[in-house]
Backbone:
């Protein structure tokens, strides 16, 4: 009748050109967060609608941010939330200090 869906663990994405790793400093509500990015900028980042129910974000989580084209130093979108194991991987590759 019903087939079981097998969930395969997904590989965490590493930052590509134009993407930045950051740490969530504060939740602003309405899927918006204040993120301290590795390029020394503080951005107000939001979760795009297609990803809103995919992951929950808390303070001090490490996230992947895509800065906006209009206000690249002030605003951005959160693309991914990294796990604890991913944080060590990011540190070893030099993306996170």
Residues:
């Amino acid at each position: 009748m019903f087939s079981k869906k097998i969930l395969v663990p997904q590989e965490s994405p590493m930052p590509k050109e134009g993407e930045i790793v950051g740490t969530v400093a504060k939740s602003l509500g309405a899927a918006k967060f204040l993120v301290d990015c590795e390029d020394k900028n503080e951005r107000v980042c939001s979760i795009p609608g297609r990803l809103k129910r995919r992951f929950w974000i808390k303070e001090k989580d490490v996230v992947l941010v895509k800065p906006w084209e209009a206000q690249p130093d002030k605003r951005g979108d959160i693309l991914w939330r990294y796990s604890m194991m991913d944080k060590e991987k990011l540190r070893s590759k030099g993306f996170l200090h």
